[in-house]
Write a structure and sequence with these properties.
The protein is mainly α. It has helices at about 10, 20, 30-35, 40-50, 85-90, 110-125, 135-160, 175-180, 185-200, 210-215, 220-235, 265-280, 300-315, 330-335, 355-360, 375-380, 415-420, 500-515, 515-530, 535-540, 550-565, 575-580, 600-605, 625-630; strands at about 5, 70, 165-170, 320-325, 355, 425, 470, 480, 485, 495, 590-595, 605-610.
Length: about 650
Amino acid sequence: MKKIKLILAVITISLASCSDYLDVVPDNVATIEYAFRSRNEAEKYLFSCYSYRPEIGSVDLDPAMASDETFKRYGINGAGQVWQNTLIARGFQSLTSPILNTWDGENGSESAWKGIRECNIFLENIDLVPDLTETEKKRWIGEVKFLKAYYHFYLLKCYGPIPIVDENLPIYSKPQEVQIYREPVDEVFAYIVALLTESIEYLPNAVEVIEGTEAGRIDKLIALGVKAKVLTFAASPLFNGNTAYASMVDNKGVQLFPQQYDESKWLLAAEACKEAIDECHAQGKSLYDLVDPLVLDADPVFQLQTTYRQAITHRWNQELIWGNTRYNNNFLARSTTARIIRMENVNNAMTEYAPTLQFVEKYYSDNGVPIDEDIMWRSESWYQDRYKVRAEPAQEDEGKRIEEGKYTVNLHFNREPRFYASIGFDKGIYYGSGYYQFNDSQRNVKYADFLKGGVSGFQGGSGYSISGYSVKKLHSFKNAQTSTSISTEYFPFPILRLADLYLLYAETLNETSGPSDEVYHYIDLVRSRAGLTGVKESWSNYSINPNKPNTKEGLRAIIHQERAIELAFEGKRFWDIRRWKEIGVMNNQPKGWNVQGQTPEEFYKITLLPQIPVSFTIKDYFWPIKESNLAVNPNLIQNYGW
């Protein structure tokens, strides 16, 4: 494996400013020696290696939190507060000043290269620590090797082929030594996998990580799960035989993207997924299936919805493999929460992170198939009339989901449990005002009202949803609202959970050998927890296309939709539509309801959200490298189309 030594500064800034970036070398040698003079000091350096992790789960700084799932009302023509990630979603990525530029550490992102540099310094100096036990040293080495691999992987997802930074180069290196090259993606993937494999040998089991003081630190399950993800990316169409990037050849004539499709990559990914799943099971991981003690007396419908939400919001639960502790949980809650009581300040619950109508339609019917395929939906004209206000108000038995006696559109009836657990919609049930005893006297049931002037809707100011929906999934049902504030339950944002691995394994198996009982098994585990019957049964009984699960292409489409639904709003779809080469969905005009409507007839009019027309093409799968970097190093060719 080719290993490159370089000064990381030359990737990001000019040679003239290298000394600032490297904290004044060689004067910092004494500083490094100081950092490794004792266990306590070395531990501080270990935590500094963690500090460059991406802002996974941040509604404004994680690019993956802005795909076709949601829309934000600000950011058009500079009006109002601008979230950096929405600028990427709206086609404003820039060659001269890239948004969320994790290459240089600008415009909302830390530099992953700087994080890699810190990891290299740590690995080069950890043997200097005199009072560190061998067991602890191995663990720390495992953590830092993982972080080094993860930073390379994140850069690879953002930029495609990247340099491999295995060691830092001395400051006295000649200019030609630091004018490095981007490596072919297959070599980068192989390097990342090798580092992860090395880290696994040193890392502790998940049960050995102390929740109170060590939660969020890397363990063996995290490394195995990320290795499975890395290999799945390597096998996916964006990186596996992508002829659209045939012109990506450097000045040495090296082809940076493999031009031949290699099915064996899917087999490697499947094996890695299965290894990760088996080890998760061995260490006690399982899909979240607990009924919270606070809802033991609630009806089964609400218990099912709550269980799904709690898989996300119950901190450090048995399904979570890797949770991010580096994000603003309170801001996430305020950005996703619908108001369910009158507030003095509507911005306490802003509902800025608003689902699009198109994504709301992705959720299955209550029969577990897409609504445009459901036989009953078609025979009863529910699909054809899905945007019409239902002639009859919600009935008593529907009051577990929709306010009894109230009117809403057909689209909100007869949907799967994950729809009601994930989406806040007009007249939909919405707990969260402080009462959790579910007997007749204290069952404080609340409902959303997104009509203009309604408790959840437009009331002036900025605290409203632009689409008429909210993301109910990303805040706990235990959050409480008062007229002046909301209180929020903390939870680590899920970077990786077991349901994700199950669906990845099903995908890799299907791509390797097509439909099989094992593929169905892992999809059906996820569906069963959501209260749905299995794939074959659902399609056989309720779909106009009953043979769909029996072909590789049909099952692929089912898996893609299952991932979209199960992992909605968790920052997975952004990367999925890229690795699948399906970025064209971002060109669809976002839609919602007329939030200025004061009656159901006025409100339920499909409204085009104020998006500047975009045209995502082949070039938009990757960020551009900042133009000035190419002037410093002509060996760094630009990404396709930029």
